Predict the 3D structure of the following.
Amino acid sequence: MLISDSSKKGVAVVSVMGRIDSTSSGELEKRLTSLLQRGEKRLILDLSDVDYMASAGLRVLLSTSKKSTALESRLVLAAPNEFIRQILTMTGFISYFSVFDDITAAVAAMSD
Amino acid sequence: MFRVDGYPTHEYGDFKLRPGKPLPFGATIVAGGVNFSVFSRFATACDLVLFHRHEAEPFAIIPFPDSFRTGNVFAMTVFDLDYETIEYGYRMDGPFDPDAGHRFDRSKVLIDPYARSLSGRNVWGETPDWTTPTQFRSGIVPDDFDWQDDKPLEIPFGDLVIYEAHVRGFTRHPSSGVRHPGTYAALREKIPYLRDLGVNCLELMPVHEFDEFENSRRHPETGEMLLNYWGYGTIGFFAPKAGLAATGSLGMQVDEFKAMVADLHRNGIEIILDIVFNHTGEGNENGPTIGFRGIDNKTYYMLTPEGYYWNFSGCGNTLNCNNPMVRSMILDCLRAWVSEYHIDGFRFDLAAILGRDQFGAPMESPPLLETLAFDPILGKCKLIAEAWDAGGLYQVGSFPSWGRWAEWNGKYRDTLRDFLRGESGCVGPMAQRLAGSPDLYRWQQRDSHASVNFVTCHDGFTLHDLVSYDSKHNEANGENNADGCNDNRSWNCGEEGESIDPEVLALRHRQTRNALILLLLSQGVPMLLAGDEFAQTQHGNNNSYCHDTELSWLDWSRLPANRDLFRFVRLMIAFRRAHPVLRMPRFLDVVGHVADLRVPSLSWHGTEAWRPDFSSASRTLALLLCGERAQGGTEYIYVAANMHWEAHVFELPDLPGARWRIAVNTGIPAPEDIWPPREEPEPADPRSVLVGPRSVMVLLADRG
């Protein structure tokens, strides 16, 4: 798994490449948490290059989302491929998140 | 917080270990690793076998050092394990001495009886690789689901309308219109349908891990693959079946299952699990060794003095439910389903077995049943017994209850079916059933909620088939039509099977509605079989346990054609919910006069008011209920059931100041067979009604 972050119109975008599973999820959690603690109020998790998400990955998304709510920040998901979207739907995790088809839509929604 | 037990004390090869904690049993994620604990009274040694997911050979076999054993429990913490990608099993050493009850086999890798997930049949129906020596492996699951505010709903038992369904059968049919047919996820998609129908309790046929390939075979003539489709043959009591999950191949069935429960609860629907503690999927001495047999055969199974398996279940073996260790496993299991999965209740398959001692004799006060009745975690959950077993013990009306256990009332089904088909001598018994079966339950100071009433369930004909077939047609099961119940009390209404005769069809329509209306007007707790609301058929097959085909799957394309029936059931459920007097916990004849000093809460009538005819030749019965209206005031519900083949005039009880309105008349074609609230017409004659042949009328009146 590779993580990179950038900024679009003042919104932090964290892009992940590869698999989010029990070996990599810890690193993702650290990165997202440090961004939130740094005071980022708007965070997009770009899933376009994520090809697998294990149960541990879902848990990191959920726990980070809860942290962001506690810090009055907003975390949204963007561009999951069909497989990832299915996993989110079938396990019911999708109901916890706002999910956008692409980064542009997510940025637009965050800028409202 | 710093904890000293977060560090290893021992090493085995590359693995860091420490003596484990014996409780809880199973594999538990702890600081730094995973705690494995398993009990066996007679094993002499035990190995932990670790696999990477999808790899055939284990990557480690770690013997439990003797110093890690406490009593009969092997416990070990293994550090630095990636719980998400590993699977495990146990190998047990011990005597192979069947005469003495021992069948240890060190060559087998056994599943953990407490495993929270099992792999091996992750995708339903995928033909197993039979050359793999280990067909099932245990998995490790974190119990950290985000339930938010969810908890079991605790709907009063009497207010339930139970709907019995098979997870796969509910949505597997191409007509179901869901994205992941046959799964927990798909079931969630159907929740709006259940809400629309109005049921508030979903009872699922077995969802605990089983092997659908148990005793799988080809039909001798058709070549069709026959499976253990129903799933009565548990191998993992703590694990939701992966093959029923859309995410089973990813090992995420636990999350998917919990999401389903949370969603049902959000929609006001409870969930009851059918749980099969009477036997396991290991069969008799010729069956596979998957877990229990190899871990502690003598503890887990009821054995004959010669060391063979007692077969009170009709399925090859009998779980030794009143062995203290098995008892505690059952308790642990149910507690886990309530606390980890928020399950609202359980229906215990062949529950009479749970009251047999270790030698098979029925007990007066079975400790297992008493424990479950008084357990604090199960304290508010529904306990429903199928109060008989295949060994001849029939306990409907006498199942030990401690005021907690309810029963599938098999006598209700039999009486209603006989009354429905116009048998003689049924009016008296039918009155008992309509009143909540006081003849069966009053003597124990139980209430009418001890009785789960039903006319059909998964076992036997569907309702459509009950009125379309005189006898079973189980040829597709490949046993020369010898399997399945012969005591069906069904009637085909004039022609066996599908018919185009309008008279036959009209009669079937009426009989279907008659059955449903009597069921939904009876005191006690009604249970519907999924699909009966749109005339699901199994073409006369009354034992479809082996068919993972369109024979068993609900055919949703029947819904548009049977909209009238669906509407009838929906309105009848709403009617039941709107009128508290239909679901009183106390027997109404004991209650006496409550809402009206002149009219008792329950009274019996015949074609003449106040004169029921309980004679053998009678086929007419009327009932008057009087109770408090939900919105205040007094209400009267009058039900006239004419199961005679001739029409009869029923004199209405004279209630000064009350005007009768017709809510239901099954003798009239839809949509005038049932009226929505406030649209009910008044009868032409306020003193009497003509009830058509084999028809039921319901009238309403209120005051205040």
Observations:
- Residues 581-703 of chain B form a domain with the Immunoglobulin-like fold (CATH 2.60.40.1180).
- Residues 285 and 308 of chain B are 7 Å apart (CA to CA).
